[in-house]
Amino acid sequence: MNRAPLPPPPATAPERSARVAGQRRVVVDVLTGADDRLLVVAGPCSVHDHQSTMEYVAGLAALARRHADDLYVVARVYPEKPRTRLGWPGMLLDPHMDGSHHVTDGIAAARELMCAVVDAGVPVATEFVEPLLTGYVADLVAWAAIGARTVESPSHRRLASGLGLPVGFKNRTDGAVQPAIDAIDAAATPQPVFGLAASGRPQWWVSEGNPHCHLILRGGDRSTNHDPDSVADALRALADRRPTPRLVVDCSHGNSRKDHRRQPEAAESVAAQVADGQAGIAGVMLESFLHEGNQPHSSTPRPGLSVTDACLSLEQTAPVLAGLAAAVRHRRHSAAGLLGVS
Fold this sequence. Notes:
The strands form two sheets. Strands 1-2-3-4-5-8-9-10 form an eight-stranded parallel barrel, surrounded by eight helices. Strands 6-7 form a two-stranded antiparallel sheet. A hairpin with a 5-residue loop joins strand 6 and strand 7. It has helices at residues 14-32, 50-66, 103-119, 154-161, 178-187, 228-239, 263-275, 314-338; strands at residues 38-43, 71-76, 124-127, 143-146, 167-170, 192-196, 202-206, 213-217, 247-250, 281-289, 312-313. It is 35% helix and 16% strand. This is Phospho-2-dehydro-3-deoxyheptonate aldolase.
């Protein structure tokens, strides 16, 4: 079996580092409520095509500018695809989509794409699946997720504890929320973390703990949890650990019953709660790409159409963002009225 060394993690251009640092500060402010906007993480289930992704990002950026007073929009750029069963594992592990698994090419492709998104002025979101590869892209990421399949993984909890960016933990695939809350507690604690040094050699250090980890409600195999009662229950569970609990709602996956066309329904539920003054909802997630639906995995996919989970089209995404923005304005004006502010 052929073996190849991993390359050293690349250095970050100073201007990119400064931009990403600023984006992370804004995300933290939104998650903590210091900024009253709603975080929106939108993009395809997994990226496979640089050109189409950048075309999508340009359209998403236009929507972000339109709603900049009410929403902070982050582009979902996921080069890994977590799997329950066998399937294409994503650009990072199989960039040529042919089973050749040229990971070194995947690292270069994923990084090139994320650099392009950052250079376009759009914050990057991703999910970390393989901890050892995190160091190749983490410097470009403004917000990250740990998925439902890895939320109980000690290595992912340690990883999150050492990342200098906000990280959301999803509830487990069966809908259980407590493992994600336990993960948040674990990641907030200083502990040994493992990764690659600039030389490419393995290294370890003791993290400071990550104070910006939070809960993501994504539904379960047989249930949704975007409704007011589920959100309130999750916030009460978080309140035992956090003085001002906040969470993000994923409108896809279990919350859409794995039907992309139901994502707007979940978003409407979230928007209604926000408009009613629910301050515990800090953000939403959407699976969205240039074209609606998805296609079978192949080495020659149609551009702009997901090869993994089905997505809303950019055109279908626009009214969802408009509804969320309107809800934020209503929440803001209601709060101002209660405070007697005109």
